[in-house]
Specification:
295 residues, Rossmann fold, eight-stranded mixed beta sheet, single chain, alpha/beta
Length: 295
Amino acid sequence: MRIFPRLTFFFLFALFANPLFSQTQVASCPLLTKTVAVDGSAMSYLVGGHGESILLLHGLFAQKEQWLDVGCALASQGFEVLAPDLPGYGASSGYPVTFYALDSQVDTPHKFMLRLGKDNMHIAGSSMGGTIAALYAQKYPGQIKSLAFIGAPLGIIGWSPQVRKAIFEGVNPFIPMNEKQFDLEMHLLFFKPPKIDEGIKAKLVQEYVENNRHYQQVWDIVNFYDRSLGGMEMNTPRTLILWGEQDGIFSIDGLPLIKEVFKNSQAMRFPDAAHLLMLEQPKKVVRVYGEFLRE
């Protein structure tokens, strides 16, 4: 079973409410959607551009289109961008629940990259995707040129006080069961939450309710990795850390902790942004990450 592509409105928000390109430029974006068989099922991915390869990994309950603005820009600036739907998410269907373990989320994308003939690349991730990127770099260090956390990763600091408070009150803000809980999720993810049509919001909540057991299974699996980066031992590649000061998922207090682990790193705080930097501030992400890649 797969997680349904419930975050469509996130990348539409990024594309039209906070555009990186004009509509003409969006139409000429070099990214295409393709599919390749990996581990007995199909992985869907965005690909485009020419140059050094960048693998972009999305977060929990998300999908590849979250990278659309950032990926289009990087692909237009002399890089080859690959942004897959991780196994079980978005349009990468047919993977059993065991594939949601982050070890599998490393191994299957590694096979995916080898299928495409890529064994030397930059890697970046958002939230859970950042954790997967770090685990990937740890397991396959000879294939990684650089590592980037585009927003706070899972596994370096515990859940924020806001998330803990909600869970102690019986509400999982990542699996909202009504519109009030959905609004809480938006305020944790975004410094300025996008305005969402009430009809769309109701449909999104209905999906959470109808597929609650599956969402909860995935949450339980991923939550085992909540400290996976803190004790990491590796020869850290050159690393970029971008963290939103208003992040409601992982507090900015975690920034010094991650710099201790990834010593070969440079970090930047985003004052007016929360958890999903590539959606809230795609221009700044492209500028900072692009400069990092070109150094």
